[in-house]
């Protein structure tokens, strides 16, 4: 089964929270109002919503790569 690593560049994140609303099983907002990854390695069950969140991010600070 394929797996992917998800990362948020918090230096670039503006706290839009679209990722957390689109894919709450992968992303949440931290105390600084920035997105953070809940589950760093995801499987096929979460890749579609993670990709949707990455595409919707207004500053493109979400990175997904094969694990």
UniProtKB/TrEMBL annotation:
PROSITE patterns: 4FE4S_FER_2. It comes from Thermococcus sibiricus. It comes from the Archaea. The keyword ATP-binding does not apply. Its cofactor is [4Fe-4S] cluster. Keywords: Electron transport, Iron, Iron-sulfur, Metal-binding, Transport. This is Ferredoxin. GO terms for molecular function: electron transfer activity; iron ion binding; iron-sulfur cluster binding. Coiled coil: none annotated. Ferredoxins are iron-sulfur proteins that transfer electrons in a wide variety of metabolic reactions. PANTHER family: FERREDOXIN. Residues 4-32 form the 4Fe-4S ferredoxin-type domain. The lineage of its organism: Archaea, Methanobacteriati, Methanobacteriota, Thermococci, Thermococcales. Transmembrane segments: none annotated.
């Amino acid at each position: 089964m394929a797996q992917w690593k998800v990362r948020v560049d918090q230096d670039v994140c503006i706290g839009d929270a679209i990722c957390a609303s689109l894919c709450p099983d992968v992303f949440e907002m931290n105390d600084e109002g920035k997105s953070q990854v809940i589950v760093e390695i995801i499987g096929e069950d979460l890749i579609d919503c993670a990709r949707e969140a990455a595409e919707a991010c207004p500053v493109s600070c979400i990175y997904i790569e094969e694990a």
